[in-house]
Amino acid sequence: MTSPDERPDRPEHRERPEHPEHPGRAAARAVPQPNAVVGVGLIVVAADGRVLLGQAHDGRWELPGGKVDPGEGFEQAAARELAEETALRVAPEAIDVFAVQIAADPAEVTRLTAAAVTHTAEGAATVTEPHKIVRWQWFGPAEFPSALYAPSAAVLRAWRPELTSLPPVPSYDYLTLTGGS
């Protein structure tokens, strides 16, 4: 009888196939290479219903957000990015992830974006990264500018699909059970 550590069906005990160019040597295991960007777009809703957008140097507008760091959850990344980009503060527990989106453009790197919303950000929006953002401005949902960064437009469309003025952005949207309010 073999112990669990000696079982031939365990990955470390399986024989690897022979290397096609070097008979008698095992083929090296293929190691997958990273091929995606994982980020979060945060809709910050003020008490009057307006939404915060930042204008980049190229004229396009975007939501606060950015890449998820190793070991972070979407909510933690959203709170960190909001503070870094705007000086606004929100607890990760006050952020609702309502969708996960995969960009549908096969010519681009795979982009996975968590769509999130909060109604409890505190402070005044300030440009803290002037090399990225020219200004932060609050917009009513009917006033969103047409020049939106594609991932931000996709997040806003998932949040409020009835806003037909938003530019179409092909994406695969996976809505969470909690929904974005």
Walk me through the structure:
The protein is of the alpha+beta class. It has two helices and eight strands. It has helices at residues 74-86, 150-159, and strands at residues 36-44, 51-56, 61-62, 65-67, 96-103, 110-118, 133-139, 171-175. The strands form two sheets. A five-stranded mixed beta sheet has the order 4-1-6-5-8, with helices on both faces. It is elongated, with a radius of gyration of 22 Å. The chain starts with 35 loop residues before the first strand and ends in a 6-residue tail after the last strand. Residues 1-5 have low confidence and may be disordered.
Q: State the end-to-end CA separation.
A: 58 Å
Q: Main beta sheet: strand number and arrangement?
A: 5 strands, mixed
Number of strands: 8
What is the N-to-C order of secondary-structure elements (H for helix, E for strand)?
EEEEHEEEHE
The overall pLDDT average reads 88
Low-confidence stretches: 1-5
- Fraction in beta strands: 25-35%
Structural class call reads alpha+beta
Bulk shape: elongated
Q: Helicity, in percent? A: 10-25%
Radius of gyration: 22 Å
Count of helical regions: 2
Strand order of the largest sheet: 4-1-6-5-8
Write the layout of secondary structure elements.
Elements: E1 36-44, E2 51-56, E3 61-62, E4 65-67, H1 74-86, E5 96-103, E6 110-118, E7 133-139, H2 150-159, E8 171-175
Parallel strand pairs: 1-6
Antiparallel strand pairs: 1-4, 2-3, 2-7, 5-6, 5-8
